[in-house]
Amino acid sequence: GAVVSQHPSWVICKSGTSVKIECRSLDFQATTMFWYRQFPKQSLMLMATSNEGSKATYEQGVEKDKFLINHASLTLSTLTVTSAHPEDSSFYICSASGLLGKQPQHFGDGTRLSIL
Amino acid sequence: AQSVAQPEDQVNVAEGNPLTVKCTYSVSGNPYLFWYVQYPNRGLQFLLKYITGDNLVKGSYGFEAEFNKSQTSFHLKKPSALVSDSALYFCAVRDEGGAGRRALTFGSGTRLQVQP
Questions:
Q1: Could you tell me if B41 lies within 8 Å of chain A, comparing CB atoms?
Q2: In angstroms, what CA-CA distances link A39 with A32, A42, A72, A88, A103?
Q3: Closest chain A residue to the Cα of B10, Cα to Cα
Q4: Is B106 at the interface with chain A, CB within 8 A?
Q5: Contact present, A1 and A96 (Cβ < 8 Å)
Q6: Is the preceding peptide bond at A8 cis, omega within 30 degrees of 0?
Q7: Closest CA to B103 of A61, A88, A28, A94
Q8: Chain A: residue nearest B101 by CA?
Q9: Chain A positions in Cβ-Cβ contact with residue B101 (cut-off 8 Å)
Q10: What mean pLDDT comes out for the span B7-17?
Q11: Does residue B58 have a pLDDT over 90?
């Protein structure tokens, strides 16, 4: 089946650091990628929708200057958490979707971000 | 607007017994329905989907789900539970519009605990 690779899987860094998370679709062209945040024992919260070659659409309450998303190719999207603080610590998950809505979204394995 | 309800935070079942994880949805048009499973510190794995056709859909690992339009439900089932089925299960929905560019809406998740 389709594979989405997310890297890194775990990041621990100091407050004020910027962290980049990569999401790659390995065997299909992802016209759309989604970025989610998951708090412990909670569901996935959609942060933004990223279409290849255009600006990401952010959900209400998500700071676009804080969470920079780039989707420059059909196989790669990146999420950069700028000047991260402890409250940004969370589990971030990307998913990728092809053009056909009938196909399921395929998820990366997530990135556990811990800000000290 | 679309929404998903998973009324049970946790379902406990003995190994070998049948299991059901409940899901109801609300969507403006025809629904695309999905079930995903999440293991600790991992992304979501696709189990099965309903787009059109037979109301009973079969998916991975022996799971199946029944689409009931009148009750707007899409309950996940398995005839005989395994200890290895213990995980967090998410139901998700999107309407048929927007092709692959529309994000899924997830339920709050149900933790399945299968006792040996």
A1: yes
A2: 23, 5, 28, 10, 26
A3: A41
A4: yes
A5: no
A6: yes
A7: A94
A8: A32
A9: 31-32, 49, 51, 97, 101
A10: 97
A11: yes
Angstroms from A96 CA to nearest CA on chain B: 9
The two tokens of residue B41 are 């510190």
pLDDT band at B94 (very low <50, low <70, confident <90, very high): confident
The Cα A21–Cα A79 span in angstroms is 5
CA pair distance B58, B62, nearest whole angstrom: 7
Who contacts B113 (Cβ-Cβ below 8 Å, separation ≥6)?
Answer: B10, B11, B12, B13, B86
CB of B34 less than 8 A from some CB of A? yes
Q: Which residue has the tokens 């196989």?
A: A75
Tens-place pLDDT, residues A50-62: 988 888 999 999 9
Which candidate in B35, B39, B44, B88 is best for mutational testing of the A interface (most A CBs within 10 A)?
A: B44
Please name every residue paired with A35 in a beta bridge, in sequence order, or none if there are none.
Answer: A48, A94
